[in-house]
């Protein structure tokens, strides 16, 4: 496994200390794992500490999934993680990005019934 695979795994499990350690060892914050996804794309969406760490280290918040066109903001909104939505927006995530189904993050939050996320995104 590469450092980037390890970094993606640490991010996916919400392991903030592991993410920090791998970044210190030289893992590329925007490097892709063996599945072609960045740590921010696979991070545990409820882990605001991991999100903030990756973003402060230069992770690009608007990288879209190659197969679905979704961004990390789409994922966070779809799963109802308002705090992660706010952090992504703080680091210039595009709130009106559309995925391959022409859906914006607010549309996915609305489909899943996350009213707090919908209200926040609509207030922008």
Describe this structure in words.
The chain is an all-alpha fold and 124 residues long. It folds into two domains: 1-60, Serine Threonine Protein Phosphatase 5, Tetratricopeptide repeat (Alpha Horseshoe), CATH 1.25.40.20; 64-124, Alpha Horseshoe (Serine Threonine Protein Phosphatase 5, Tetratricopeptide repeat), CATH 1.25.40.20. 52% of the residues lie in helices and 0% in strands. It contains eight helices and no strands. It has helices at residues 3-12, 16-24, 39-42, 48-56, 72-79, 82-90, 105-112, 115-122. Helix 7 runs antiparallel to helix 8. The radius of gyration is 14 Å and the shape is globular. It starts with a helix and ends with a helix. The mean pLDDT is 97.
Tally of structural domains: 2
As residue ranges, the low-confidence spans are none
Structural class: mainly alpha
Using DSSP, what is the number of strands? 0
Looking at CATH, the homologous superfamily of the largest domain is Ankyrin repeat-containing domain
Q: What helical percentage do the residues reach?
A: 40-55%
Oligomeric state of this protein: single chain
- How would you describe the shape? globular
The biggest beta sheet reads: none
